């Protein structure tokens, strides 16, 4: 494993790129800062696999966002499962 | 992504590929349906209900379930290994402080082995798009009133993990045994669109 995982509690920001093909980074969660809750295993990036690429596994995380940061309002949280490559950190 | 695929291009493509594979003898007629049936066999909300009831009566199991659900499931004779690979299960517990609700905004990811096939509303665009933005209103439409003091945590199954909600044990159930408690738990309770 060459990727050093983000530790729980790390503040991370999702990437803003809008790829042509499949991505598991939901549009509503692009370019937003959240907090890593835990590492949820290691898997090849689904975005790359959808393009037929044979890629190594990388950390996948539960990342928690405040609704206010995602949508501008709301008191709830949304936890999204994201690959390391979807994230920039620490923010 | 549409919620309806019956007449879509993709379903026509799938039927064509299936027919070609059968013509070439790579696939027996009906094999796809058979494999899907095998995968779904035994998958029913009764499994999830059994897990919940055990967690309600056994605090040690509850702790193990929340810490590592895949390791705890065999204690009640279940596993997440029925598919091509074992899927990671994350169980999230409702408390006085937080009510959890599940969604897959990208498609319809769901713990089939534990809960069976998902309900149609779970796959609808309306549920998938609205519950992340305004869960309290969506829950109200399901008849669920979450107290203002209780926060709401939405979980989007956007990658490899599957989720299940551990509802709170209802008050006044002290006299029920594990089987009686199992009967209280609903599929919607396991998704978070009901309290139990």
Automatic annotation (TrEMBL), chain B:
Molecular functions per Gene Ontology: catalytic activity; transition metal ion binding
Record InterPro entries: CN_Hdrase_a/SCN_Hdrase_g_sf, CN_Hdrtase_a/SCN_Hdrlase_g
Keyword Metal-binding: yes
One Pfam family linked to the record: NHase_alpha
Keyword check for Amino-acid biosynthesis: no
Residues annotated as domain Nitrile hydratase alpha/Thiocyanate hydrolase gamma: 10-194
Superkingdom of this protein's organism: Bacteria
Protein name: Nitrile hydratase
Alphabetic keyword roster: Metal-binding
